[in-house]
């Protein structure tokens, strides 16, 4: 990771490495704080399901959608027997992972590259290994190639000694039973080069790496929705799976809430698929490039993964499949042994012309940044919706996503419609004595569906804000006006209240600059302070204007109609 990943200039928080099972536990704790409670399956064998209940031990086995609702058939264990029950709901959001039962029940196909690689994932603990790495070679991701073994070690927590080992897997010649706890321990010893005394293997699971996107995210009159890995699955490098999934939920939440609360028609959910599908397609291409970049290193060492995969396919798909299984396994093991022999000191040294050339190629890959990348700020923070629940600017619709390069690109904040609202530190003027620093992202409510109109304290901007509040009130659209005062200039006490009377839905903030030469809010947004920015509940820009508007009421009716789907005419 780079120093700028931690400076909190582009975002109020720093980048983090966080494993999925820990996130799941954290989410459950947060849900409980919000009033949700977990219910054991046996206690809910009969009777209706209450609000804010989390049904543990239930598995979705079938889905049936109708025009006005969905029936979910779930199985659960009760008194030692598997039972089924039907659950009625208005909407179903399928976030049930890469092997989504919801997606399969609907017959929605995945499109992209299948079976990029089969692997076995070994979750284990070893504080001894963690302490060794902290002292000798701290890192997050280790690609290990030696004569005895090959694997990728993910360090989830060096202090606690928590790791996940990823090992290539070639069934049916190799079987999952081959990866016993003892065998995995020996493999860990070979990869680490250490006889570790405290290895505790927690879990062993096979999985398949894909790069695919669902052909559609919506079904059954928008009543059934796919999100997260159920809608797209990527190679893991770069964190695109978790980041893209969280973005899906962020995009969907306010739209679904708007429909349920009767603010927007159900057709607004079309924008969810329109917006998120384009990002999923882009991130799929980028993750594939990143995976291929990672494979440049073993290829340079004479361990081209495509060779092993080609032999494996030949054994399974062609004449090789008629060979006895023992012979097939022997052939595969022989290929692996020849491959690992390329890593011997005899081959891989500067005095051997072949080894010297390979080492030179390896240095070139690292020096030019051609290998695996872990940080993608431009994609994680700078992704932008081109069409959907937003008002595109004349020239922006024609722009297409810059083709993914697989290389790191830094995030450049902007306020173009569809972009994420830029971050800047601000302070609330309602409490001038407070030292609390907020982000502009905090101006968007997390507790309710609410749009935010950001303006500067000028007469024309106040006029626009009054028009927006009037339209929003008439059509029951939640809106708050935020007045952005320039750094060090708070000489208009009471001006906003007088200018926006009788409307009370506003707040005033003042810029907090890091230094005197730091850019202003409007400079960051690449606009003048005579403009205005309308922000959606998911912190993305819905619309902006850079100049005075002749008929603010008419304009705001048009804007809200496009963004929310509400008939404002």
Automatic annotation (TrEMBL):
Coiled coil: none annotated. It comes from the Eukaryota. One of its GO terms (molecular function) is oxidoreductase activity, acting on paired donors, with incorporation or reduction of molecular oxygen, NAD(P)H as one donor, and incorporation of one atom of oxygen. InterPro entries: FAD-bd, FAD/NAD-bd_sf, RIFMO-like. Keywords: FAD, Flavoprotein. Gene3D superfamilies: 3.40.30.120, D-Amino Acid Oxidase, subunit A, domain 2 (3.30.9.10), FAD/NAD(P)-binding domain (3.50.50.60). It holds the Pfam family FAD_binding_3. Residues 10-282 form the FAD-binding domain. The keyword Translocase does not apply. This is FAD-binding domain-containing protein. It comes from Solanum stoloniferum. The lineage of its organism: Eukaryota, Viridiplantae, Streptophyta, Embryophyta, Tracheophyta.
């Amino acid at each position: 990771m780079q120093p700028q990943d931690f400076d909190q200039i582009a975002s109020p928080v720093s980048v983090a490495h966080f494993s999925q099972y820990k996130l799941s536990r954290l989410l459950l704790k947060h849900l409980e704080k919000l009033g949700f409670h977990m219910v054991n399956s046996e206690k809910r064998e009969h009777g209706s399901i209450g609000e804010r209940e989390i049904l543990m031990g239930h598995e979705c086995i079938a889905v049936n959608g109708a025009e006005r609702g969905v029936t979910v058939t779930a199985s659960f264990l009760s008194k030692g027997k598997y039972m089924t029950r039907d659950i009625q709901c208005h909407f179903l959001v399928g976030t049930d992972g890469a092997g989504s039962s919801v997606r399969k029940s609907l017959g929605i196909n995945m499109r992209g590259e299948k079976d990029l690689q089969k692997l076995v994932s070994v979750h284990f603990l070893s504080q001894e290994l963690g302490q060794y790495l902290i002292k000798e070679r701290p890192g997050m991701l280790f690609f290990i190639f030696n004569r005895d073994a090959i694997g990728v070690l993910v360090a989830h927590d060096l202090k606690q000694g928590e790791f996940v080992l990823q090992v290539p897997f070639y069934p049916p010649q190799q079987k999952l039973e081959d990866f016993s706890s003892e065998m995995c321990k020996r493999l860990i010893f070979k990869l680490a080069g250490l006889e570790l005394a405290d290895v505790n293997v927690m879990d062993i699971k096979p999985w398949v790496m894909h790069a695919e996107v669902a052909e559609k995210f919506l079904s059954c009159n928008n009543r059934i929705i796919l999100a997260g890995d159920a809608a797209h699955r990527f190679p893991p490098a770069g964190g695109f799976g978790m980041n893209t999934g969280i973005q899906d939920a962020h995009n969907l939440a306010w739209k679904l809430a708007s429909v349920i609360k009767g603010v927007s028609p159900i057709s607004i959910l079309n924008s969810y698929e329109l917006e998120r599908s384009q990002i999923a397609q882009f991130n799929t291409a980028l993750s594939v490039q990143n995976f291929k970049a990672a494979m440049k290193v073993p290829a340079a060492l004479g361990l081209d993964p495509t060779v092993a995969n080609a032999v494996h396919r030949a054994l399974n798909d062609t004449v090789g499949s008629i060979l006895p299984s023992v012979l097939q396994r022997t052939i595969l093991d022989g290929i692996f042994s020849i491959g690992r022999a390329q890593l011997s000191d005899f081959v891989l040294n500067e005095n051997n012309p072949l080894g010297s050339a390979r080492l030179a190629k390896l240095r070139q890959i690292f020096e030019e940044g051609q290998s695996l990348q872990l940080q993608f700020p431009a994609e994680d923070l700078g992704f932008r919706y081109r069409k959907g629940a937003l008002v595109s600017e004349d020239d922006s619709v024609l722009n297409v996503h810059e083709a993914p390069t697989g290389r790191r690109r830094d995030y450049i904040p902007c306020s173009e419609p569809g972009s994420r609202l830029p971050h800047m530190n601000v302070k609330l003027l309602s409490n001038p004595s407070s030292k609390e620093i907020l982000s502009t992202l905090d101006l968007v409510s997390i507790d309710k569906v609410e749009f935010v109109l950001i303006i500067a304290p000028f007469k024309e901007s106040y006029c626009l804000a009054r028009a927006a509040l009037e339209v929003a009130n008439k059509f029951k659209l939640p809106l708050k006006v935020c007045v952005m005062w320039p750094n060090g200039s708070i000489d208009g006490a009471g001006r906003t209240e007088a200018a926006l009377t009788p409307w009370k839905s506003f707040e005033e903030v003042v810029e907090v600059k890091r230094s005197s030469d730091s850019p202003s809010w409007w400079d960051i947004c690449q606009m003048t302070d005579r403009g205005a920015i309308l922000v959606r509940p998911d912190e993305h820009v819905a619309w902006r204007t850079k100049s005075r508007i002749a008929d603010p009421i008419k304009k705001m009716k048009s804007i809200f109609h496009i963004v929310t789907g509400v008939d404002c005419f």
